[in-house]
Amino acid sequence: MTVITNIEDLRVLAQKRVPRMFYDYADSGSWTESTYRANEADFQAIKLRQRVAVNMEGRSTRTQMLGRDVAMPVALAPVGMTGMQHADGEIKAARAAEKFGVPFTLSTMSICSIEDIAAHTQAPFWFQLYVMRDRAFIERLIDRAKAANCGALVLTLDLQIIGQRHKDLKNALTAPPRLTLPNLINLATKPRWCLGMAGTRRHNFGNIFGHVQGVKDMSDLMAWTGQQFDPTLNWGDVAWIKKRWGGKLVLKGIQDVEDAKLAVDTGADALIVSNHGGRQLDGAQSSIRSLPAIVDAVGHKIEVHMDGGIRSGQDVLKARALGAKGVYIGRAFTYGLGAMGEAGVTKALKIIHKELDLTMAFCGRTQMDAVDKSILLAGTFPT
């Protein structure tokens, strides 16, 4: 029996159990994948200060994100096609997040729909929005998120056009998978996944299928989605979306100080320092290196979050020390989901939480809100 001790263990197990095209979809970046790798590697250069003879009793990782009490400063990131990592994947991930006490963010490009998540959870989840050319569809999507009582709208700004990911092209990625000979051979080695998929009706993009005029089958759907990401998206559209939504708004995909200042001007409640997990502009700076300058510039005006490269509780603590009020995990929880379903997502959260709690204690802190740059070794972190 495999003993799971860290996120890497979950990744290895997910790679064995998830069909190649969907595992590669989650575990890849654009072009040379240099930014994807840097997101993770740059955390390792940041060193921690160990403190001793500090009373470590009564520790708590609890804090707030967007005014919501959370068990730790971690949210589940929006990940497209999560329901292809495991049957009903978004529902399972949302339930695990709710039970653990952290936010779940549903992607526009999810397999399970907004309504599916609302029907299977109690806590308000967050909804991530991609802006499409079909603005009437976007208006309906926002209204559906309102009706589902979503706690925040996370507007992604860095996918006006889609970066090239070589593995997706080589795998001929589709949802559900196109039954080519190579795919059939690969699926034959994943009986657990196939059995799960046979037991659910959720195989398509649930937020889109049945909600777009003229889309009647998978060929229509794939053609529609391929043409719909809107390259004209601009800051004026953010104002329109904010007005239509009316609730808490988070802007995702900020990497530059100038864009962070523009984000503040929109009146958004938070921004996420993010390079889309290294899946868009290869050669861009890692999120953790971009974080400090953005926090220094606008952190007193807007809540700053980050994602990209979080694989451990130590990474969470380092991001918190550099000013992030919260972080998002995408690959870390999808590895857990692909490996073990809902139990795997829970396992990923427990691993990160334990690492976070112990590392915070070793650094001489017992409360998350007392964590700052002083826990880091000077000269090892970006400024």
Write the layout of secondary structure elements.
Elements: H1 7-17, H2 20-26, H3 34-44, E1 63-65, E2 68-70, E3 74-76, H4 89-100, E4 105-106, H5 114-120, E5 126-129, H6 135-147, E6 152-156, H7 166-171, H8 181-187, H9 191-198, H10 218-228, H11 235-245, E7 249-254, H12 257-265, E8 270-273, H13 287-298, E9 303-307, H14 313-321, E10 326-329, H15 331-340, H16 342-362
Parallel strand pairs: 3-10, 4-5, 5-6, 6-7, 7-8, 8-9, 9-10
Antiparallel strand pairs: 1-2
Arithmetic mean pLDDT? 95
Runs with pLDDT <50, length 5+? none
Strand content: 5-15%
Main-sheet strand order equals 3-10-9-8-7-6-5-4
Helix content: 40-55%
CATH class (first level) name: Alpha Beta
How many domains is the backbone divided into?
A: 1
Structure description:
An 8-stranded parallel β-sheet has the order 3-10-9-8-7-6-5-4. With 383 residues, the protein is α/β, with parallel strands linked by helices. The chain has helices at residues 7-17, 20-26, 34-44, 89-100, 114-120, 135-147, 166-171, 181-187, 191-198, 218-228, 235-245, 257-265, 287-298, 313-321, 331-340, 342-362, and strands spanning 63-65, 68-70, 74-76, 105-106, 126-129, 152-156, 249-254, 270-273, 303-307, 326-329. It is globular, with a radius of gyration of 20 Å. The longest helix is centred in the last third of the chain and has 21 residues, at 342-362. 43% of the residues lie in helices and 10% in strands. The chain has one domain: TIM Barrel.
